[in-house]
Write a structure and sequence with these properties.
2 copies of one chain form a homodimer.
Chain A: E1 2-5, E2 12-17, H1 22-41, H2 44-60, H3 62-73, H4 77-100, E3 107-109, E4 118-124, E5 128-131, H5 145-153, E6 157-160, H6 166-182, E7 190-193, H7 196-204, E8 210-214, H8 217-229, E9 236-239, E10 246-248, H9 250-255, H10 257-269, E11 281-285, H11 290-299, H12 309-324, E12 329-333, E13 346-351, H13 352-357, E14 370-376, H14 379-387, E15 392-398, H15 404-420, E16 421-426, E17 465-471, H16 480-483
Parallel strand pairs in A: 5-6, 5-8, 6-7, 8-9, 10-11, 10-15, 11-14, 13-14, 15-16
Antiparallel strand pairs in A: 1-2, 3-4, 4-17, 12-13
């Protein structure tokens, strides 16, 4: 049985939920397999309407959803209400992607000389497994971005619920299932399983064609290995952890120390630091007033209840490891959060030299509101250290755009960040991921398992598609979208 | 040392070539690593000119290239001259892709409400390893499609030459290297290694960011595993073997038996059957006159010299395995090809029932001019057997388009082929792969290791790219192509 707990009290929240049996998992996959050609065959307009029906149904029950999610996650009514809106906004965004149709990448090559009539279009891969995240009970969970993009692509989805919010997951799944059915989506389009074993069985099932995951690096890499070792390997799109380095250039540090320090503290402690985009590493000039400002800002910050006893224990261990490190000194701590798993914000300090000499402890993710400030003597010395970092979802640079020396340094730092991060923020913070076409919420391994793809934004649909080319087809046998070869030849 | 042999005589062709040492491999990767930011930083126009310089230089020495390749492969002057043209055509095609620029997928999302200024563009992944094929000494070798597409993307390339044509590889590499240098490409943009050990060292090198491969299923899967097990796994784009099922519907079999049989024999024996697109499985109606026509056409066909003693031995083993299979009877054989490794075309016959009951021998690739004809009692019974096939590069269906029953059956067969093949040909044969934008030379695992990508056509460039998003950047720090946010919001 899976039992949720209220992070504010540590007491059980809601009734325990049964783990899905092997027979139950197999039945859902069978239903998804039967649904696949039917869902793929729905018109894009009908699939768009089904996504909108799900969005409308979730919006209609927002207070109920927020109440149960708040009891299971303690993320607060405001954040959770916003997250439901983000979730339904994503579903509607993908409805727009379907109506636009360009995601199909339909292309016809000119018939010229020896070249045959050749046309290509994207098709849905097949039934998809989605592993929900702990830290976003809506936007990266049952009806989150992976589900929305896969359903949009025409792939049936089976979600493995996160153990921390089974009640939220069940209510969301019920709403999603009813809305899809009412919109005419085939039976088996959507399913939900509970339990680690059920998730593993799902991932190993021969009929599952791909998987999406948002969560820890260790968990994601273990699941990625399972996918790679299947008899028929499948793509595993894991969005894992990251330390998201932020570089403050000398001009910016001098001009805006207080502003940068308060922005940093806010980003570091947002959601009790429980974001994969948390700014774990802050590189600041060695002789900067920024250190004192950061100490003051983080000293004045407050933590919050973490999502679970396990996440809190992991955070405590990570903080203890940093505290015990000989090359590190504590810079500041904030106020402890509420409840038995209330996190205390911490910021530690080290030198670039110590950081570079360390063999992996200091550059490790500390999931929660703990930051490491690294003082660098010069950008020249900083660059190889940045270049040696593992992959990240985000990098950021703070630059005084009015200062030619800062601009010149930024032109050195940005190429280094480009190679280790999927998104680069200028004069801002890694947290906050806009759901738009130009988003790339991805990054080099191990920030993600397949760095060419994003899990946020409209391009997320590409993960669930595969091209098929049709050669010398009579019009009556071509897929509808290829019948009128309107699109020009393009790469 | 690596020694080429003339397939027409079995005698050595040219002098032995030294295997590349560990130090030699590392030096090439170091040079490629230094070249990477410089090549990525070249303007698209300058990179296009470099590709065209390579194409011009290869064309200028076509007779020399063809002569040495013919001595090493016995593929013949006509085929090899055409293949050089295909190779230089590919290079020029990618020059056009660069000038067009849409492969960059540059996109800017509208700044509205809380949405930040966010822009995204594709960037080159890094140094790329390319494993050349035996059966295309030009188009899938040193200056072939993998090399052309990776250089176009801005990735330095190190090719592991195929053991069967070291002289061709060295001459091609010399021409490519000189042309790139003369066009201003950075030193280290291109390199060549010889030997299996050198190839493995290349694949395991931490600075290599991705690999392309064309070759056997067994070899490709072994290299794919190495890539997956690296400390930092890298994408391995393997284009492996396939059996490429061809379904002849009853109407087509009745209306065009002789034409289909002669087309089949030609496709089966083209290039001594040494194509990954060879039509290994032919499904024909049980009561059809096609069987006799196929027997006659293949009986009148001739084999050719195979590329190497090893490939010939593999073919002999595969033929012997089919001959020894109790469910299979020989249908026809053609004339043996020239030389010590001259292949004899063979066609075998079995029933759908025997084929379905077999546990993997009959559906195996037999690299060379050997085909299996499977007689099916009805399309209804055929469909589940098609659905159970592993992934293929190509599937084909022969249909009498004037016959409504054939059209109706095609509408059942095509969806089945769509799920097991990357390209579907109507009333044609799998061999022959047009180099155009709409091509998809890929297919479900294990036909390829990453089924979303093609190794032929302009979309092949996508394998060597990764997106980066830029948030809140001042214009002066943005990549040039993102400065003018001309492109509309799109998925």
């Amino acid at each position: 049985m899976i039992q949720a707990f209220n992070p504010r009290t540590g007491e059980p929240a809601g009734d325990p939920v049964a783990e899905t049996s092997d027979v139950g998992v197999d039945a859902l996959v069978s239903a998804a397999t039967e649904a696949y050609p039917l869902l793929a065959g729905m018109s894009l307009g009908a699939r768009a309407e089904a996504l909108e029906a799900v969005a409308d149904a979730l919006d209609a029950r927002v207070s109920e959803l927020v109440a149960i999610a708040d009891a299971e996650t303690a993320l607060g009514e405001e954040r959770l209400t916003g997250e439901v809106g983000r979730t339904t906004g994503q579903l509607r965004l993908f409805a727009g992607v379907l109506r636009d149709g360009s995601y199909l990448d339909a292309v016809a090559s000119p018939v010229a000389g020896a070249a045959p009539d050749l046309r290509r279009v994207n098709r849905p891969l097949g039934p998809v497994a989605v592993f929900a995240a702990s830290n976003f009970p809506f936007a990266f969970s049952v009806a989150g971005g992976d589900t929305a993009s896969a359903l949009a692509a025409g792939c049936p989805v089976i979600v493995k619920a996160h153990e921390n919010h089974p009640g939220t997951s069940d209510l969301t799944a019920q709403i999603v299932g009813e809305a899809l059915a009412s919109a005419g989506a085939p039976t088996g389009t959507f399913g939900l399983v509970h339990g680690v074993d059920a998730g593993l069985r799902l991932l190993r099932h021969p009929a599952v064609a791909a998987a999406g995951f948002t969560g820890s690096t260790a968990g994601g890499l273990a699941l990625a290995r399972i996918c790679a070792e299947r008899e028929v390997p499948i793509p595993f799109y894991g969005e894992l952890g990251a330390v998201n380095p932020v570089v403050v250039l000398p001009g910016a540090a001098a001009a805006r120390a207080a502003e940068i320090a308060s922005g940093y503290a806010a980003s570091l402690t947002l959601g009790a630091g429980q974001f994969c985009t948390n700014p774990g590493l802050l590189f600041v000039p060695a002789d900067s007033a920024l250190l004192a400002a950061v100490a003051e800002a983080v000293g004045g910050s407050a933590g919050g209840p973490m999502l679970s006893a396990r996440i809190f224990a992991g955070y405590q261990d990570a903080v203890a490891e940093a505290e015990a490190h000989p090359g590190v000194t504590p810079l500041a701590s904030g106020a402890q959060g509420e409840g038995p798993w209330g996190a205390t914000p911490h910021v530690f300090q080290t030198s670039l030299k110590e950081f570079a000499a360390d063999t992996g402890v200091l550059s490790r993710e500390r999931f929660g509101p703990a930051g490491l400030v690294i003082t660098y003597p010069s950008v020249e010395e900083l660059l190889p250290v940045l270049g040696a970092l593992a992959g990240n979802l985000v990098g950021a640079v703070h630059v005084d755009t009015g200062s030619p020396p800062d601009i010149a340094l930024a032109r050195q730092v940005i190429p280094a960040l480009q190679r280790i991060a999927g998104r680069i923020v200028c004069n801002g913070w890694p947290t906050g991921v806009a759901v738009v076409a130009a988003q790339h919420h991805g990054g080099p391994w191990p920030a993600t398992t397949v760095p060419a793809y994003t899990s946020v934004g409209t391009a997320a649909i590409r993960r669930w598609l595969v091209p098929v080319a049709y050669q010398n087809f009579p019009a009556e046998l071509l897929p509808d979208v290829l019948r009128e070869a309107g699109k020009a030849d393009q790469p």
